[in-house]
Each structure stands twice: as C-alpha cells, then as structure tokens.
Amino acid sequence: MTRIRRVVTSIPRNLGLAYQGLRTWGPRRVAVAAGVALAFGLLLGLATVLIPNPVFTREIPPVWWNYPVWIATSVLSGMLVATYVRQDVGGAASPSLGAGDFGDDDDNTPEARRSSRLGFVGAFLAWFAVGCPVCNKLALLALGYSGAITWFAPVQPFLAVIALVLTAVALVVRLRGQVACVLPTPRKPVAAR
C-alpha cells in the first residue's frame, strides 16, 4: 500500500520534471517528433483503414473513439522517438541526422530499456485497439468471426486506454530523465568479520 501511495504522490513531481524536459527541446527534436508522428500516423491510419485506401479493407466501420486514439498515439509516439535524438549543441540544429545522432550515453540503463518497451507495447496495442476486430488475423484465428465481434470488439476500448497510458508513461519517464538524474542507491558496506 505504501508503494502505491508513493507512486501516486510522485505523479505531480514526475509530470513537472517531464514538462521541464519538454521545455529544453530544440527545433531538431521538435522536427523529429513531428516527422515521426506524421509517419506513424500514416502507417497506422492506412493499415487500420482509418484513412480510406485501396490497399487495405475494413469490414466493420471505425467507431468515434478510434480517431482520437489514433491521433494521440501518433503524437505520443513521435514525441517518444524524439527523446532518443541528441539535443542541439549550442542552440543550433545540426544540418542532418548522422549515425551518432540517436541515443545518449545513458540510454542503456534499465529505466531507459523499460520505457522503450513500454512505448513499443503501447504502439502495438494501439494498432489492435483501432483496427477492425474481424480484420485482425490473430483475433480471427483465436476467436472466429462471431467471437471477434462478440469478445474482441468490446475489449478494444480498454486496449486503447492501456496503449495510451503505456505510451504516455514511457514519454514521461524519458522526459523526466532529461532533467532529473536518478542516482543508484549506495550499497550498504559489508561488515568485516
């Protein structure tokens, strides 16, 4: 119970630190965030036929909440990817992104790996959430056509909420880490025998 209380009481502080991290962004990160959000939005929108196209089909029309979830997931994913781009040096953006421009030295920490996984799972769940319930081959194989409509379609809004929460948490963790360095707790000295 105390752990839950600690997590809940730390939310305002973490959001404040994430806001401070976001304020440090330069034009380079903003451009990457916008570009990735647009690319991810197009990919997700075309594959789930939220953007009508001749390549993919959708047997059941989208519901009203598919569009806000699609847009919010795209924006959050774009911002999350932008946190992996190095900051502008001296306030000026580099002319192009080179091989060493992605990732910081601290991206190999357990917290960074965990936030990467959260972001990936969030984007993956968003695809399941906004997609056609009977066009999803996994749901169709597991549940059949009527099962996909009866069992999978009602679960999709919950998948959407989980996807947005996971992606938002990953983004907050990454942004918070840009301004607040989490130091490891020192080990207790071993008593001499």
Condensed summary:
The protein is mostly helical and 193 residues long. The chain has helices spanning 2-23, 27-47, 66-82, 110-130, 137-179. The chain is built from 5 helices and no strands.
Tell me what you see in this structure:
By secondary structure, the chain is mainly alpha-helical. The protein has five helices and no strands. The protein is 64% helix and 0% strand. α2 packs antiparallel against α3, α3 packs across α5 and α4 runs antiparallel to α5. About 8% of the residues have low confidence.
Summarize the topology:
Elements: H1 2-23, H2 27-47, H3 66-82, H4 110-130, H5 137-179
Note the total helix count: 5
Find the count of extended strands (DSSP E, 2+ residues): 0
Approximately how much helix is present in the residues? 55-70%
Rg calculated over all Cα atoms: 20 Å
Proportion of strand residues: under 5%
Major beta sheet summary: none
Oligomer: single chain
Shape: globular
Number of structural units classed as domains: 1
What is the CA–CA distance across the termini? Answer: 37 Å
Structural category is: mainly alpha
Low-confidence regions: 91-105
Topology as H/E string?
Answer: HHHHH
The overall average pLDDT, rounded, is 81
